[in-house]
Amino acid sequence: MTFILGLTGSIGMGKSATAAMFRNGGVPVHDADATVHRLYAGPAVGAVEAAFPGVTVDGAIDRTRLGERVIGNTEAMKRLEAIVHPLVRATEQVFLAEARRKSAPLAVLDIPLLYETGGEKRCQAVAVVSAPAAVQRERVLVRPGMSEERFAAILARQLPDVEKRARAHFVIDTGAGFAFAQRQVDDIIRALAFTV
């Protein structure tokens, strides 16, 4: 029996680094964002280009061009999600089947919009990665191509951090440094691997 833990957190909260901590602890992790990157380099190109002409560069979806078309546009985002989400779910199912085949006691589904897409229903518990708003803002605004407007548009699509934390079974605080976060991850791995 493999225990399925959902891992989520708003932009700039340190979710990717936290997912790496689980991976380094021997826990298999399915990264929805990395899956989308792979899909944009191959399997999803035709369908996304057909829906949003001009977003392909050198045979792959250019995320910046695509972002300009869909961020802040609810209808366009829904169209994109209708193409991409079923493909991501299919890879997730293959991942979970493999984790069960290997008798992994714990598997992590790293999904940025977990609550927003109802992904928590596919998990037995959820861990939310969080940090103070000032830390989040500082991390996000140094990213290439990020602006106040883009940051605001991304946040508008995400459930507020306070609500995510209230709904989570575990909250991993990355605001006090990654060594502190690592200890929290280790505790979760011990707790959940022990319960299955």
From TrEMBL:
EC identifiers of the protein: 2.7.1.24
GO molecular-function terms, A-Z: kinase activity
Sequence positions that bind ATP: 12-17
UniProt entry tagged with the keyword ATP-binding: yes
Keywords (A to Z) from UniProt: ATP-binding, Coenzyme A biosynthesis, Cytoplasm, Kinase, Nucleotide-binding, Transferase
InterPro entries to which the protein is assigned, alphabetical: Depp_CoAkinase (IPR001977), P-loop_NTPase (IPR027417)
A Pfam family matched in the record: CoaE
Subcellular localization, as worded in the UniProt entry: Cytoplasm
PANTHER family, A to Z: BIFUNCTIONAL COENZYME A SYNTHASE-RELATED, DEPHOSPHO-COA KINASE-RELATED
Entry protein name: Dephospho-CoA kinase
Annotated organism of origin: Labrys miyagiensis
